[in-house]
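**Polypeptide and fold**
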Amino acid sequence: MSHAISTGCNSLDRLLQGGIARNEITLIYGEAATGKTTAAIQVAILTALGGFKVLFIDSDNSFTQQRFHQICGSKTRSVSERIMLFFPETFEEQRTLVESLNNYITPSVGLVVIDSMSTLYRAAFPKADSIFNLNRDLTRQLAYLADLTLSKKIACLITSQVHASLKPSRDQIEPIARRAVLHFPGTIIRIRSSPNPRVKEFILERPMRADAVRRCLVEITESGLQDIS
């Protein structure tokens, strides 16, 4: 497997200096309907087309067969055989699943996706007996994923929902459970809307590269992420 997995969008691949990197977590965060799930599905499909298997944890109930078929096209059958889907319904189920991923990793697995890392965490928050324990569980999951990418030499792509930032020194939004979610990824991308609802701005927040492209515009189409025509 090459050093990175293509996103299928040339401008986004250039932003990432090749695509989604192996050996680390890549985080994509942004408001609703900015293309996070589309990006996750598209990267999963391209990984499968490269002959590798994908473990896709859909904690957000956003992976639909219709969207998968739209992006995948005529190769749906062969691709679907290489993507293993999981649907946890509680944060506890997500934790158990993440901590058992090693049981599913074989040399043929190239990518782990979690869409979204924060959905079930957010749902559990109001009912949690201990916020400390809830945050500890999220941190453990992320630490486990970071170790898994290094030990198994695979890529891991996670998405996160956002909420309004309470600190005026920061941007208007930030990922839910910011401290934990931003600590572990080696690459962080924020998606921001533009005046054109079909066009989104992808902003590279980590790693910081003074001499590199920092942002690009991507069109969200029925068939996935595409360069601006």
Summary: Residues 4-227 form a domain with the Rossmann fold fold (CATH 3.40.50.300). The chain has one domain: 4-227. The chain has a mean pLDDT of 93.
